[in-house]
Amino acid sequence: MSLEDKFDRLNISNEPRTEHANNKILDKYEHKFKTDEMSFTRSKTNKDKANRATVENVLDPRTMRFLKALTSRGVISDFNGCLSTGKEANVYHAFAGDSKLHADVVLEAKEEEDEDEDENEEDEDDLPIDHNLKEKLETELRPEMLTKVSQDKKEYAVKIFKTSILVFKDRERYVDGEFRFRNSRSQHNPRKMIKIWAEKEFRNLRRIYQSGVIPVPKPIEVKNNVLVMEFLGRGDGFASPRLKDHPYKDREEIFHYYHTIVAYMRLMYQICRLVHADLSEYNILIHKDKMYIIDVSQSVEPEHPMSLDFLRMDIKNINFYFEKMGIDIFPERVIFQFIISDTLENFNGDYRDYNDLRDYVAQNLPIKKSEQDEAEDEIFRSLYLVRNLEGLEERDFDRYTDGKFDLLKSLIAHDNEKNFSAAEQFDLKAQDATTDEEDEISEEDFDGEDDDDEGYESEEKVLKGKRYEDKDAKKLRKQEAKDAKREKRKTKVKKHIKKKLVKKTKSKK
Ligand SMILES: Nc1ncnc2c1ncn2[C@@H]1O[C@H](COP(=O)(O)OP(=O)(O)OP(=O)(O)O)[C@@H](O)[C@H]1O
Ligand SMILES: [Mg+2]
């Protein structure tokens, strides 16, 4: 729309009300009107594609052939039905086969096996589709049938990622910026993307499993979009419950699990070098009185530019759930620092033992109680966290120039340095660079003007005077203005914090 058109529309307010309203609707839906020629062939293909992406379920012919191959290779003896259907993946129950290939051998041999993967794929293309198997998988698991069939067979959970293009689009942001997946050229091909995704879950699971510090299902095998892992069950064919469905015995147990998950988050970050990035009561199973972490496909390493944002989100979700359960929680900021700090003051236990860490959490972290705590958490949530300037992407630049972010270093600097020595691992230079750069932007681009919006008139007057200024005097004046601004900035409260605090005081009235 041209400027003139817009101007014409402005005059509409003189017209009767209804017409004005019509124009408003027109404005709103204008972009939806298709003015280009209709093309039947094109729309047909698009529709087909869309159907394939969303409607087609996980059990496409290729996946079916691969599942069949799993049985013929003896990894799995029987599939027994569906445990869970989700947006991104379905999970099935299966019995282990008698292949010696699975278990520990697979965990180690995996890396080399990847090389000749494509060759195997071709073999599977020749396999006929087993329609009985398909039917079995399409029905919900009925545990009462299982126990009759077999009591002593090893059980597996088989997670099959959907080949849906639509859902997987969003996943690039988790894989982008991951050092481990830097060589994958296939991020825009959904089939390959999904393969990377399943592999990512397998590798994350394996890393946590091998660290031995946090309970997770044992990873068995991954190929294409299929991940095989240990099944966490109650022993009667039913899957162990998610934390969300767990029937707590008493309040003590709620506290116990809250403190444990806070300890897990630290172990995951410090020992496994991962941030879960989708942690909630849905992705924790209670198995044999222990919490097991599942669904780690989107987990990222601390080096990922968004890792700290994901960590903060995890903490928020966990706190939200346990607050709902009616127990005292810790401030989000305190948990964050507990997780990322290298060392913990007054901690005499084993840094790899979640029992020791849980006891420490229970006895040392302060409870969130005052309004001040909530205000601080709110500010903490609004902070834009980056490890260093390298983690800053172009799209974040606006937020950066608006002052809407903090380097971790400055966040931690407020606290007892001994207690939270994590500050040391972050890049000091990066922060210096920020301040300098910030100076440059504000001083050169805005040339001595003040932040506070002064009246138009007064600005005019000053400008008039400047025109007759001698060169040296101008230089001196500019330098003085620069110095004064720098001084002022030292004590200036950041805009977004100011805004928060103002809001807070207003709402108290
Ligand atoms: N190893 C396992 N043992 C027992 N049950 C499992 C196991 N893994 C997954 N499940 C069950 O399957 C459900 C979904 O698994 P998961 O969280 O890994 O998939 P998802 O990615 O969340 O799927 P979506 O996000 O599409 O819902 C879990 O909530 C759990 O009930
Ligand atoms: Mg899940």
Describe the structure concisely.
With 509 residues, the chain is α+β, with helices and mostly antiparallel strands. The chain is 51% helix and 9% strand. The chain has helices at residues 3-10, 17-29, 40-54, 61-72, 104-113, 117-125, 131-138, 143-149, 165-169, 172-175, 190-211, 251-270, 307-324, 332-340, 354-364, 371-382, 397-401, 408-413, 428-446, 456-466, 471-491, 495-508; strands at 76-85, 89-96, 155-161, 219-223, 226-230, 284-287, 290-293, 385-386, 406-407.
List the helices and strands and how they pair.
Layout: H1 3-10, H2 17-29, H3 40-54, H4 61-72, E1 76-85, E2 89-96, H5 104-113, H6 117-125, H7 131-138, H8 143-149, E3 155-161, H9 165-169, H10 172-175, H11 190-211, E4 219-223, E5 226-230, H12 251-270, E6 284-287, E7 290-293, H13 307-324, H14 332-340, H15 354-364, H16 371-382, E8 385-386, H17 397-401, E9 406-407, H18 408-413, H19 428-446, H20 456-466, H21 471-491, H22 495-508
The structure holds adenosine-5'-triphosphate and magnesium ion.
Biased composition (Basic residues): 487-509
Binding site for Mg(2+): 283, 295
Biased composition (Basic and acidic residues): 458-486
